[in-house]
């Protein structure tokens, strides 16, 4: 006999909602045996009650009436899977006010209005669980909040957008051009019809805002994050980087210095090809966490998809039903943004190594001119690559790798280089990220 | 103000005990802010109260008298870090009987007497938390029990012994011989003075017993696990394997088939060099879990060491202090071994691919003889490697890779091959494990 039965309602009966319903309908016995709690899917709400879904619901469960949940006091947990930030926010607030705990996968909403929703939940003495909002089936939120609870988190380096990683993997391994790789990602179902939020880095920034908020205990929004997407990456740069031992990834990076300064950024970058994150291929996600006690811990898995995401949502439902989430959530008090804001570094303050590619005229004195510009801006080089090319336009690609340099100096140098007569097209500049791998001999 | 203060006693003040004390003494404020609970180190017990440790305890905390904990009703949690299976078991049982929850890193004890201890804990209405028993700082127990709670676990492929992985990495990357690599591991502090339990696979089997028990929900002991160590691995075989695209690892593998049959084994094996586990180098650990919903999820980090292990222990202390562990532990009912036993497969039932190396005379007809023996045993080949060698003894190494074959057939063939006049020395036979990577194009 179950110790207790917990009734659950799903709002939003799309792909993920279907996955959650499938687990709740098929595996309730298994979950009860492990937890003592009977999970009962009591209601599914969607404006579309007609279309065929991937899972068959018992008769009478599906409705388009949200009030049928709000008014049913026996329903304890509401799973918001509507997506977007407007209707979803309203629904979450109504669920909380209606006395229900909320489980959600809505990263955009949490990234933009997380603290407001958390405050509403605290007021209602309810909790919001959001494991599925970051990195799909990887239990990363739980890892940060419980498994690594004894750690002060120093940094997060993450691949949290499977669409971009799939595209970059194909550009890297098959020398595909961006447009073709994107098209293939769409055909395979890894990219939305409108992939803008994925490829311009916004989706990664949403996830980083959530991860950094809970890891650092302060309110971080997407506005605090420097963001560049992968839409302008050219396959030739991936190839030159590879020759020099680097792999291009879209990373989401959060770092907290000992003085409390926080650096948050999402951008394509070269990382050493033998680093663990460089080896994360295809639509997979990986999150590397650096804790002061545990050192580097990396989590790898499927960052999206019906069943992986449903796996994370049902894990949350179980924790909420057992009462464990609420106890921890009660203490999820984020330092408010107005206090955090002045500790957040600007991208110009970044010190990094850089990959710079110029298309330069193949004539005497060109290297001297480029070198003079770099020297003027206090930039020293650690590597240069120039292949012999036999073309008719007399323009050759020149790649340089810099030593550690401040972003603002690089920006000035790139501007100066662009003005040189011998340099054709705009210079390409890609950051090199040296992940402080927890290396041991 | 803390919601409540929880008093903790540590039994065993060695390296790990010092790490736990360090976190409790230095980070109590930080942990209180996140959880609302004040952790107070109330007592440390060790038979040696004189030696200098890596952390300075407040005066009066250290004693050699276990009863001072048992008699102090205000102490709620006892951390057993004595190690070994005799005294430690007695201490855990006394702590439970004394009304304390137990936190432990003792894999040998849990692997051999886990169910007995769990039963004692259930009787005392207390819990045992054991995150630190497997894979050090990686929160793998919590991942299986909560983050992946909605999954039926189908398989575990794990590198859980950092000593062996360090040795094999050095044999692979630096072509070191086993004895030299072991010596270096000892010098670096990655291997015990007596490394037998590490290199013969016993330690990995202990951890696999624990992981498989909680993943499959049944009582599994080291006796149920087929175990081979790495002590007889020769660097030349690592090199031949590498040429053919394989990397040698000591893997701990647990698989559960749909019909309930369970396969448990620890042995050195070749895995494809581009698989995620093949890239786990040095003393790191990694655990790959296959869930029916989440797919493949891999966890990577430091499997040992003072602070990573302390990180896991304090995470457990926090979960126990919050009451979360107890709620879940209450339902940790393992199917008893006498019922599970007949579902556990024998190694002879294994179907696998195999790497076989023979040292054979370099003369006409040798290949035919080898081929005849293999054919007689129903074994077909997928690859052969023989380098030209210019030596005086006229003996050359011949490497063959088989297709899927049953273990008992390979055993018979190896015996027959050993009897051939043209085959010198004993044939070397290493399993090839094809990890069902959750591959997506």
Task: Give an account of the 3D structure.
The structure is a homodimer of 441-residue chains. Chain A is of the alpha/beta class and 441 residues long. Chain A folds into three domains: 4-133, 3-Layer(aba) Sandwich (Rossmann fold), CATH 3.40.50; 140-302 and 336-347, Dihydrodipicolinate Reductase, domain 2, CATH 3.30.360.10; 348-432, ACT domain (Alpha-Beta Plaits, 2-Layer Sandwich), CATH 3.30.70. Chain A has helices spanning 15-26, 28-35, 67-70, 86-97, 107-123, 140-147, 162-173, 178-187, 196-199, 202-216, 235-243, 306-322, 324-329, 337-340, 366-376, 407-419, and strands at 4-11, 37-45, 62-63, 75-80, 101-104, 128-129, 153-159, 226-227, 246-256, 262-272, 284-291, 295-302, 351-361, 381-385, 395-402, 405-406, 423-432. In chain A, the strands form two sheets. In chain A, strands 7, 8, 9, 10, 11, 12, 13, 14, 15, 16 and 17 form an eleven-stranded mixed β-sheet that branches. In chain A, helix 7 (162-173) packs across helix 8 and helix 15 (366-376) packs antiparallel against helix 16 (407-419). Chain A is elongated, with a radius of gyration of 24 Å. The interface between A and B is large, with 64 and 64 residues. Strand 12 of chain A pairs antiparallel with strand 12 of chain B, so a sheet runs across the interface.
């Amino acid at each position: 006999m179950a110790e207790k039965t917990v009734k659950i309602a799903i709002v939003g009966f799309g792909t993920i909602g279907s996955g959650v319903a499938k687990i709740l309908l098929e595996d309730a016995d298994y979950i009860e045996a492990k937890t003592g709690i009977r999970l009962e899917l009591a209601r599914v709400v969607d404006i579309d009650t007609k279309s065929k879904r991937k899972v068959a619901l018992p008769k009478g469960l599906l409705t388009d009436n949200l009030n049928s949940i709000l008014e049913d006091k026996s329903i304890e947990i509401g799973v918001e899977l509507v997506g977007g930030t407007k209707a979803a926010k309203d629904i979450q607030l109504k669920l909380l006010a209606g006395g229900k705990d909320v489980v959600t996968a809505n990263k955009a909403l949490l990234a933009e209005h997380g603290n407001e929703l958390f405050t509403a939940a605290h007021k209602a003495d309810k909790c919001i669980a959001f494991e599925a909002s970051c990195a799909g089936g990887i239990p990363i939120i739980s890892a940060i909040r419980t498994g690594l609870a004894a750690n002060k988190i120093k940094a997060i380096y993450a691949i949290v957008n499977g669409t971009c990683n799939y595209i970059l993997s194909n550009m890297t391994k098959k020398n595909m051009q961006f447009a073709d790789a994107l098209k293939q990602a769409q055909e395979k179902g890894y990219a939305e019809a409108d992939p803008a939020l994925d490829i311009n880095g916004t989706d990664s920034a949403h996830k980083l805002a959530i991860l950094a908020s809970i890891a650092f205990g302060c309110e971080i929004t997407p506005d605090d994050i420097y963001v560049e997407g992968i839409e302008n990456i050219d396959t030739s740069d991936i190839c030159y980087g590879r020759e020099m031992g680097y792999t291009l990834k879209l990373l989401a990076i959060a770092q907290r210095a000992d003085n409390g300064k926080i650096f948050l950024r999402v951008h394509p970058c070269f990382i050493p090809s033998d680093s663990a994150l460089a080896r994360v291929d295809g639509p997979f996600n990986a999150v590397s966490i650096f804790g002061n006690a545990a050192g580097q811990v990396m989590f790898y898995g499927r960052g999206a998809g019906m069943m992986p995401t449903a796996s994370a949502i049902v894990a949350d439902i179980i924790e909420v039903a057992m009462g464990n989430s609420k106890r921890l959530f009660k203490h999820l008090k984020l330092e408010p943004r107005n206090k955090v804001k002045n500790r957040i570094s600007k991208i110009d303050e970044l010190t990094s190594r850089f990959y710079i590619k110029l298309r330069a005229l193949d004539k005497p004195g060109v290297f001297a001119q480029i070198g003079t510009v770099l020297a003027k801006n206090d930039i020293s080089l650690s590597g240069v690559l120039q292949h012999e090319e036999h073309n008719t336009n007399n323009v050759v690609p020149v790649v340089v790798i810099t030593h550690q340099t401040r972003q603002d100096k690089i920006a000035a140098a790139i501007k100066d280089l662009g003005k040189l007569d011998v340099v054709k097209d705009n210079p390409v500049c890609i950051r090199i990220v040296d992940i402080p791998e927890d290396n041991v001999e």
